[in-house]
Automatic annotation (TrEMBL):
Pfam families: Glycos_transf_2. It comes from Fulvivirga kasyanovii. InterPro entries: Glyco_trans_2-like, Nucleotide-diphossugar_trans. It comes from the Bacteria. Transmembrane segments: none annotated. Residues 15-110 form the Glycosyltransferase 2-like domain. This is Glycosyltransferase.
Length: 283
């Protein structure tokens, strides 16, 4: 009797690294345990945005690894498009998008496998929590994300509820039918810009019964002030670009000033407010 085909055979995962080795990535480590738990194997593109290579070429029994190093740090949108292109070339049906710092439970692979066996939805999303707070999916109002205290699994309109990138399982054909990720949003608003495209071909998505822990940089305390200031300037530019090119209803001034004030309080510095005012004056 022929061996039953594993459901993971139809999935290509894409994990984006930045200054963290593959083996130290919380996502990779937790999914490795999940693969052992399910006795399955997964093909993955490791897209490395770090200045120096974060993967040595080490073999892992539960993974078939493709590696691409992008020292220019082109961002997650380009990484996910690279994964989408590879998935199409390999004849995969599903693309699993992963940040480097999501903690998946041991049953994650089995849950994904059962979902794609039983559902035809083009976009599936898990629950992501940060410090016991649900950060994905979240509600949308005038283009701004708002935390939901509780939401049941099931299908929801992408006009009202939206997931973030990590953990998304997307039908490859649908991924390319909507044009994939918008590479002019390399990091900030990458998920917003993608969902804006995706909902034009599929207005709904499904929240699945999979709960993960995620390190969400927008809610964390930061370290180096100059690095954070530079990161904030990129956020300002992306916010204004998103309002200008995608969603004119977005209250960009409020978002930028609010983050500037929060970072200014963390670092006890007015540099962030100055950067915010400069960006808003030059918009």
């Amino acid at each position: 009797m022929p061996k039953e085909k594993k459901l993971c055979n139809s999935i290509l995962a894409t994990i984006v690294l930045y200054n963290t080795s593959l083996e130290q990535s919380q996502t990779f480590r937790s999914l490795s345990k999940s693969l052992l738990y399910s006795s399955d194997r997964l093909e993955v593109l490791v897209y490395d945005n770090s200045p120096n290579r974060m993967y040595t070429g080490k073999k892992h029994s539960s993974w078939h690894i493709h590696y691409f190093h992008d020292p220019a740090n082109s961002g997650v949108s380009k990484a996910f498009n690279h994964g989408g292109a590879l998935a199409k070339a390999l004849g995969k049906k599903w693309l699993l998008l992963l940040d480097q710092d999501t903690l998946f439970p041991s049953e994650a692979i089995n849950i994904y496998g059962n979902e794609i066996k039983e559902n035809i939805a083009g976009l599936l999303a898990p629950y992501l929590f940060f410090k016991r707070k649900l950060i994905s999916p979240f509600s949308l109002k005038s283009g701004e994300g708002r935390i939901i205290n509780h939401i049941q699994p099931g299908s929801y309109s992408l006009d009202q509820v939206m997931p973030v990138n990590s953990g998304l399982l997307i039908n490859v054909e649908d991924f390319w039918s909507c044009g994939g990720y918008n590479e002019s949003f390399p990091l900030d608003y990458s998920d917003f810009a993608f969902i804006e495209r995706f909902r034009k071909i599929h207005p709904d998505f499904k929240i699945i019964e999979l709960t993960c822990e995620h390190q969400f940089s927008g809610l964390e305390q930061f370290g180096n002030k100059q690095a954070t200031l530079q990161r904030f300037k990129h956020f300002c530019n992306s916010t204004l670009k998103y309002k200008r090119e995608v969603n004119p209803l977005l209250n960009s001034n409020k978002l930028i000033i609010r983050r500037a004030v929060r970072l200014g309080m963390i670092y006890k510095s007015i540099s962030f407010l100055r950067a915010a005012l400069l960006a808003l004056n030059n918009k």
